[in-house]
Amino acid sequence: MSMLILGLVLFLGVHSVRIVADDWRTRTIGRIGAGAWKGAYTVISLVGFGLLVWGFGQARMQPVQVWAPPVGMRHLASLLTLVAFVFLAAAYVPGNAIKARLHHPMVLGVKTWALAHLLANGLAHQMLLFGAMLAWAVADFVSARRRDRAAGTTYQPGRASATVVAVVAGAVAWAVFALWLHGWWIGVRPFG
Predict the structure, then answer these.
(1) CA angle 68, 170, 12 (to 5 degrees)
(2) 96 pairs with which residues across the strands?
(3) Domain edges within the chain
(4) CA-CA distance, 130 to 118, in Å (whole number)?
C-alpha cells in the first residue's frame, strides 16, 4: 500500500498547490515560465498517477476488508457516477447552465465520483484512494470558489441547448464507461 500512498501524495500534492500555496505558484511561474511549470507539473502528475495505479494494483492482491457495503450502495454509486460524468462533460461544453450555476463542474464531478466509489467499496485500498480523492476535491472546490470571490469572477448564464449537449454527452460517456470500459480498464464490471 506504500506505493499507493506515495502516488496519492505526488498526484494530489501537485494538484493541491493552488489550494495551499497559490502565491508561491504564481511567483514560481513568473520566475521559471509557464512552459517549465506545466512541464514539471505534468511529469510529477504522471509519475504520481503511475505509482497510484501500480500501488492500487498491488493492494488488490492482498485486500483488507474494512466494511461490507450493502448491495443498494452499488445502485446509488451508479446513479452518482452518472451525475459525475454529466459534471465532467459540463466542464468542457461551453455556455451550459450547469457550469454557469456550479462554476467548477469538473471538481464537482471528482467529488461525486469519489463519494460514489467510497459508498460502494469497503476494502482498505479502495477507501484510501476514494477518500483521498474526495477530501482533495472538497478542498479544491472550496479554494476555487474562494478565488472566484476574491477575483470577482462572474459566469454568464447558460444556454439550454448547451446544457442538453452536456447532459447527453455525459450520459453517453457514462454508459460507454460503465458498460464496457470500466470492466476492460479496471477489471470490475459495474453491471455484471
Answers:
(1) 60
(2) 159
(3) 1-62, 64-192
(4) 6
Residue 86 phi, psi (nearest 5)? -65, -45
- Whole-angstrom distance, CA of residue 185 vs CA of residue 50: 14
Q: What is the pTM of this model?
A: 0.91
DSSP tag of 157: P
Burial status of residue 148 (CB atoms within 10 A of its CB: 0-12, 13-18, 19 or more) = middle
103 closest CA partner among 66, 133, 146, 132: 146
* Cβ contact 23:143 at 8 Å: no
**Phi, psi for 65 (deg, rounded to 5):** -75, 125
What does the pLDDT look like over 94-127, one tens digit per residue? 999 999 999 999 999 999 999 999 999 999 999 9
State how far the Cα of 84 lies from the Cα of 41, in Å rounded to an integer: 25
What are the helix (H) ranges across the chain? 2-14, 17-20, 22-32, 34-61, 71-92, 97-102, 105-120, 124-151, 160-176, 182-186
